[in-house]
Amino acid sequence: MQATEMSRTSYLPLLVASQPRLAIFPEVLVGKDGHFTSKKSIQPGDVLISVPLDLAITVPAKSIKGELSSDIRLAVLEESGDENEQKSKLWQEYANAVLPTALHSAALKLHFDELVRWVERDCAKENNLDEERLKWALGIVRSRSFLLDSNEDFARPARSLVPAADLFNHLPESPVTWAKLESEFKDSLEILENPWQVVQGDDGDSYIDICSTREWRAGEEVLLPYGLETNIELLSAHGLVLRDNEAEYLVLYKDLVELLGDVCELELQESLDTVKLKLEKLQTADACEAPLAIRPGSVEASGHLLSSLQLAYATVDELPDFEDSFSPAIGHFTMCSSSLSPERTKELRAKAIRKVISLCEEELKRMETSLADDDKEMEKLKPVRAQTSEEQSQEGDERAQGEEEEK
After folding, report:
1. Banded pLDDT at 357 (limits 50, 70, 90)
2. Residue 148 to residue 159: CA distance in whole angstroms
3. Is the pLDDT of residue 284 over 90?
4. Residue 245 contacts by C-beta under 8 Å, 6 or more apart in sequence?
5. Sheet holding 57-60, edge to edge
6. DSSP class of 285
7. Residues 6+ positions from 184 with CB-CB distance below 8 Å
8. Given this model, what pLDDT does residue 183 score?
9. Positions of the region Disordered (predicted)?
């Protein structure tokens, strides 16, 4: 991930040499300056790394999104060493060399008591895990594991920790970028949706192939998407924030009901029957559950919110003029006024934009500091973060040395 431990990719060649079956690196990658760089041109679907499935730490996931219980079982399995001796030794070496020695996750802080109860109920108390080690293991799982989808070579979804596969930096993707890729690389759609695939090799063994989702030129850093994640999601799960994150957005309404309640009931004083008709129309849209949010870039990037507001400001007689249409500027379908006059469309759009400006001003008033204030505070934290990183690295070296002496 994009953190100080990424500088330890220089250890990977040694790890691969000591464990020949750990990972097979085709001639397309080289660990350089804390990240992976392409040696030659890479196309969508090209295999970047292939890891034997039996060297990964894997537990079944009960749903396509995985579940909290699978995260916990995987963490306890990783921390207790409940694997064969060869795999346990491999992961000990990998943890000492690559993984952070301490991990502070905002996502875990809120739910840690719940996680502990799950462990006590489902994962056997005889593991004797102390609280700090359990926090560390859970943090590693939440930030570095991923879901393996089922396919013809893999019967059921699973949550997995895969050595080396977790070291790619994040590739931010907005819905617009995703839609463009989906259109350009239809033959690689399965890879675009999930670059981690379980396949059966010519030797009959199963492998986890990590595939490229983009074209990369020789010399470029090779990135993998963690998902359509905002900075808040990236910070809570992975401990990083991107200055330019095209997947960022700020929700102004939690759902269509709140939007219509604000515009139709409070502002326009419309009847409940009218509100219901507008809600029914909006709910027929393909992307009716998409975030009602503002996004980085031009005004058009926030088109889903604006088009929903335009319909809210329209009259009941104008509802048939709205159709669910794909918008390249948004990256998905949204309700658009297809047959209204240009003048009326312009009028509705102006009302929608004024409403968004008003909501944004309210949000800014609620914030205690400005962006400039926040940048100053971040500058003050740089020495603290650097010291913490150095201390964590030293702790890892001392722990590895102590374990070596015990042997």
Report:
1. very high
2. 6
3. yes
4. 172, 230, 231, 234, 296
5. 57-60, 158-161, 146-148
6. S
7. none
8. 72
9. 369-407
